[in-house]
């Protein structure tokens, strides 16, 4: 053996990583305001926290998440510039639930082989979504894992930090019986339940390039619809005193009822009227193709409701008007009531999700569509 092994021979191409950074730099810089120091490429992202001195009692909020198996659809279609919206939405919209403004975010991409153009597409999508959310993308990491992931495989994750004034914190402590639930429409499947969705598609024998009349486009295009990023709109809604926003819930893994129950105070029950909205076609297709039971659908997919605002009864009209002005489809979804345990016998209640001792949710009626 005349030549020793090299890192490149082991499957890691550091030059490709450097090229990827060059391709993504401009998109990342567009998310930077004067608070971001040092630019792109440092060991750590720097964010000037002097702005926090304007807060009387700042609380920091943080969240981390990934995209899940939706990345398999992006990889199959070789379309990588939208998956970033799924990542950012999953992270920053958890932070906004408590009323916090997401300040900055970092990302992590693990791949079997660094293809600079592909990695840059992913990060450009993340940066574009951060612009929508008003969040700085201050850093990230791309790791090449040959032998662990295939050459065309990758996974993405991210984390963000936000801030909220202590006396503006949203959540169960503000929610009261008599409050009203406002549903905020999803853009589609978002980024949850794709293990079920992919299993249904495989069972049905459908190809991603199949044109589906109900969708008005191909199956793959529908499945890859980017997650709606709610952060800026929710903060604008919360800042409208007339809307009387008491809380939000982000409808992600576990579905509507399970996530709504987490943000209700113990002793209350939210009644959600299934007939208050029409279930979008993609969810009906999953249901029908896989003969998926309703309970499983409700416990897995958002069914058209991506976020819920909980508002005071007198703030409903103002909240709906604000959503309309923001271009965000919204409607009255249900109400919050005092929970009388003696009436729960035989009722289908959801409570105790994620180990949280909180409220309960009752789903009533039948879906339209």
From TrEMBL:
Domain PurM-like N-terminal: 49-164
GO MF annotation: an example: phosphoribosylamine-glycine ligase activity
A family per Pfam: AIRS_C
GO cellular component terms, A-Z: cytosol
Entries under InterPro entries matching the protein: PurM-like_C_dom, PurM-like_C_sf, PurM-like_N, PurM-like_N_sf, PurM_cligase
Pathway: Purine metabolism; IMP biosynthesis via de novo pathway; 5-amino-1-(5-phospho-D-ribosyl)imidazole from N(2)-formyl-N(1)-(5-phospho-D-ribosyl)glycinamide: step 2/2
Top EC class of this enzyme: ligase
EC number(s) reported in the record: 6.3.3.1
Main location: cytoplasm
GO biological process: 'de novo' IMP biosynthetic process; adenine biosynthetic process
Keyword set includes tRNA processing: no
Superkingdom as given in the UniProt entry: Bacteria
UniProt-annotated location(s): Cytoplasm
CDD domains assigned: PurM
Record keywords, A-Z: ATP-binding, Cytoplasm, Ligase, Nucleotide-binding, Purine biosynthesis
Family label: Belongs to the AIR synthase family.
Protein name: Phosphoribosylformylglycinamidine cyclo-ligase
Provenance organism: Luteimicrobium xylanilyticum
């Amino acid at each position: 053996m005349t030549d020793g092994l090299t890192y490149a021979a082991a499957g890691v191409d550091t030059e490709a990583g450097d090229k990827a950074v060059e391709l993504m730099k401009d998109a990342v810089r567009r998310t930077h305001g004067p608070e971001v120091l040092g630019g792109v490429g440092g060991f750590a992202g720097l964010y000037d926290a002097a702005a926090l001195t304007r807060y009387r009692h700042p609380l920091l909020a943080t969240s981390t998440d990934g995209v899940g198996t939706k990345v398999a659809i992006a990889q199959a279609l070789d379309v990588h510039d939208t998956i970033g919206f799924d990542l950012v939405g999953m992270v920053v919209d958890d932070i906004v639930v408590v009323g916090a403004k997401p300040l900055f975010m970092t990302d992590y991409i693990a791949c079997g082989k660094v293809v600079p153009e592909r990695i840059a597409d992913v990060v450009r999508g993340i940066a574009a979504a951060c612009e929508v959310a008003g969040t700085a993308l201050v850093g990230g990491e791309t790791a090449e894992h040959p032998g662990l992931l295939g050459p065309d495989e990758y996974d993405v994750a991210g984390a963000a930090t936000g801030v909220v004034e202590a006396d503006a914190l949203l959540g169960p402590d503000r929610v009261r019986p008599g409050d009203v639930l406002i549903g905020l429409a999803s853009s589609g499947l978002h980024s949850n339940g794709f293990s079920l969705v992919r299993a249904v598609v495989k069972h049905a024998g459908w190809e991603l390039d199949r044109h589906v009349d109900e969708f008005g486009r191909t199956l793959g295009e529908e499945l890859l619809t980017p997650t709606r990023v709610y952060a800026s709109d929710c903060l604008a809604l919360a800042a409208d005193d007339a809307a009387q926003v008491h809380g939000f819930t982000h409808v992600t893994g576990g579905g509507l009822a399970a996530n709504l129950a987490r943000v209700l105070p113990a002793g209350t029950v939210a009644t959600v009227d299934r007939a208050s909205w029409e279930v979008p076609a993609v969810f009906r297709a999953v249901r029908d193709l896989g003969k998926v039971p309703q309970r499983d659908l409700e416990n897995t997919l958002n069914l058209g409701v991506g976020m819920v605002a909980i508002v005071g009864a007198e703030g409903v009209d103002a909240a709906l008007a604000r959503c309309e002005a923001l271009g965000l489809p919204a409607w009255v979804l249900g109400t919050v009531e005092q929970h009388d345990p003696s009436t729960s016998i035989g009722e289908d209640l959801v409570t105790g999700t994620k180990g949280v001792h909180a409220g309960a949710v009752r789903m009533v009626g039948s879906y339209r569509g």
